[in-house]
Amino acid sequence: GAVVSQHPSRVICKSGTSVKIECRSLDFQATTMFWYRQFPKKSLMLMATSNEGSKATYEQGVEKDKFLINHASLTLSTLTVTSAHPEDSSFYICSARTSGARTQYFGPGTRLLVL
Amino acid sequence: DAKTTQPNSMESNEEEPVHLPCNHSTISGTDYIHWYRQLPSQGPEYVIHGLTSNVNNRMASLAIAEDRKSSTLILHRATLRDAAVYYCILRDVGSGTYKYIFGTGTRLKVLA
Question: How far apart are CA A5 and CA A12, in angstroms?
Fold first, then answer.
């Protein structure tokens, strides 16, 4: 149980285009989902927290107009990187928790390369 | 935010026990201590969590100091597949969102 999937697993896009990454909880209802990014050899950095049906809460320094997060259902959250640039190239990871749970479950990650 | 401190790296021989330490001197009374591990190019994998008492599961054991300012993750017999970055994490309960604050983690190398 407690499986989280992400799609796509890797994506290459041209500079200036937008990319959407999906995060799904497969066997539980995710009342809260989190989005992280990770640069090579570095730790995970939290970007934003989203609760189902509410606007996402972004961490300091994360541009909300650039990283659009939607959490429209209890099993799906999406992260859209708008007008992507090479510096947005990174490993993006989502996690999910259900109401009352003490732990988060992480997706396998999406590697984004912007050319 | 409560923060954790871990050694950057550790080595262990295969089939031997491994003790991974974590300091969390600013932990609050309601903070659970969580451990995750991350293999290369994968998302973090849940290992174990606890509040005050020592905890055991099929993957590992978690020993929590009496004052809760430190904890140790114990892998009883390290295998090559245990080579990963291990993160000791406290939740940011004060924010009401239960978000995790990741530290730098410990990169465990297992020698055959």
Answer: 19
Contact A46 B102 (CB under 8 A): yes
Q: Using an 8 Å Cβ cutoff, are B37 and B89 in contact?
A: no
Using a CB-CB cut-off of 8 Å, the residues of chain B touching A55 are none
pLDDT tens per residue across span B66-82? 999 999 999 999 999 99
The answer to whether B97 contacts chain A (CB < 8 Å) is yes
For residues B50 and B98, what is the distance between their CA atoms, to the nearest angstrom? 15
B42: contact with A, CB 8 A cutoff: yes
Q: Among B99, B103, B104, whose Cβ lies nearest the Cβ of A49? A: B99
Q: Is there a cis peptide before residue B21, judged by omega within 30 degrees of 0? A: no
Which uninterrupted H or E stretch holds A7? Answer: strand A4-7
Residues of A in Cβ contact (< 8 Å) with B103:
43
The model's pLDDT over A40-70, given as tens digits with 9 standing for 90+, comes to 999 999 999 998 888 899 999 999 999 999 9
Ranges A17-26, B20-29, B96-105: which has the least confidence: B96-105
